[in-house]
Write a structure and sequence with these properties.
Chain lengths: 222, 201
């Protein structure tokens, strides 16, 4: 079962590498969205510092949403998804493996690049750690919750818009906690509380979301 | 032994078939025929458990397949309409991944041999023709001869005469070895004489 999950993660990473442009688009989207705000609201340093956590988190959220549409669509179109459903591992394990691969390709790069974006907003050095940690805990939650929506909207006309409407309200918790952690740290408070709740959310998402995704896939493929 | 009891299938409000029953032992083949839209693909998808029947059930060795789940999956190979190949990978990479996802564990040289037997070139799948893609998908059968149940949706589509003959030999060999084969087709093939027939529609 674990061997199947490993094979699937390795396959999806290999496919992402062969189609590097797709992953790059989501990352560039993140960078561009986060860079538009200073142009729009003006370059007043205090103001930028204040909005930085929220802006970076909203950009991460939208970028995650952008890449979610592709999570199952390609496998659905070429018939691979049916083979995965008839594979040797339970569908929940398949869904979890695909979600992990999706996060490695579209979530992890955001965590790495976020401090560079923070530089544009003149965020204090001491906050980089909290920002990266909040994204490290939060972006996988986005991928796991988003996978449920991606599976539900699979094969629907206008699925992309529907996916956004379904999933964005569920992202609110993560946004509040993630941006809140950085806000708390910037005003000198401990961010432990937010980060712990974010970790708890991550555990719940990892345990339950793949089974919900599997059920949604069965409905969509039937 | 593959059994179907009282199977019915509905698409929208239309009833495609009802009260369909058969039992296939090892060494037997079943050919599903019928005009377009008569439910051939739906029946094959129900038999492998991808779709749920509107009524009735499918049993494998006496147990309903929805209780067997992965155990049933390990005893079957399904090749559908879509070739289930990734455009970015080579046929060998595709076949290697497909067998590992099925936990079949076939050595890489055996996979390469299967592909060269069927004359599939070692190019990225997106550069292959339809017929070559079909052959690459069917190579899965060459390395799955220990799997007892083969469910094939239009296996002869897009194949040339030599490819079709090779596939007929492969299926006949599988039947002689005690395997069970279910296939849908429009074209007549040498296998039809030995196969039982379900005519839908």
């Amino acid at each position: 079962m674990l061997a199947v999950a490993r094979t699937l993660v390795a396959r999806d990473l290999l496919l992402a590498w062969r189609r590097r442009a797709d992953a790059a688009v989501a990352l560039l989207f993140f960078i561009i969205v986060a860079s538009l705000f200073p142009l729009g609201v003006g370059a007043e340093p205090n103001q930028l510092r204040a909005i930085a956590p929220g802006v970076i988190w909203v950009a991460a959220l939208l970028s995650s949403l952008l890449s979610l549409g592709r999570l199952f669509a390609a496998d659905h179109a070429d018939g691979t998804l049916e083979q995965l459903m008839l594979g040797a591992a339970p569908l929940g394990v398949v869904a979890a493996a695909k979600t992990v691969a999706h996060w490695l390709v579209s979530g992890l790069p955001l965590v790495v690049i976020a401090p560079v974006i923070a530089l544009q907003y003149d965020v204090q050095r001491s906050l980089y750690g909290v920002l990266a940690l909040s994204l490290l805990l939060g972006t996988p939650v986005l991928s796991f919750i988003g996978a449920i929506g991606a599976a539900l909207t699979l094969g629907l006309r206008g699925g992309g818009v529907l996916l956004a409407l379904l999933i964005l309200p569920l992202y609110v918790q993560v946004l509040i906690l993630g941006a809140g952690a950085v806000d708390a740290a910037s005003s000198g408070l401990a961010a432990t509380g937010q980060l712990l709740v974010l970790s708890a959310l991550l555990i719940v998402a990892v345990v339950f979301a793949p089974w919900a995704t599997a059920t949604a896939l069965r409905v969509s493929v039937d | 032994m593959l059994e179907a009891a009282g199977l019915a299938c509905e698409r929208g409000a239309r009833r495609l078939f009802a009260e369909l029953a058969f039992a296939l032992a090892g060494g037997e083949a079943l050919r599903i025929a019928g005009p377009n839209g008569s439910g051939k693909t739906s029946l094959v998808r129900i038999l492998c458990g991808l779709a749920a029947p509107a009524a009735g059930e499918v049993r494998w060795n006496g147990t309903p397949i929805r209780h067997l789940a992965e155990d049933y999956h390990r005893s079957l190979v399904y090749i559908g309409h879509a070739p289930a190949l990734k455009d970015e990978l080579t046929p060998l990479e595709n076949l290697d991944i497909a067998t590992r996802l099925a936990a079949a564990g076939v050595a890489r040289h055996a996979l390469a041999a299967a592909l060269s037997t069927l004359g599939v070139p070692d190019l990225a799948v997106r550069k292959l023709s339809q017929g070559q893609k079909r052959r690459a998908a069917l190579a899965r059968l060459l390395v799955s001869q220990s799997v007892p149940l083969w469910l094939l949706d239009e296996p002869f589509a897009a194949l040339d005469a030599r490819g079709a003959a090779a596939l007929e030999d492969l299926l006949a060999g599988q039947l002689r070895a005690g395997g069970t084969v279910v296939y849908t087709t429009h074209q007549p093939s040498a296998l039809d004489a030995a196969a039982r027939l379900i005519e839908l529609g």
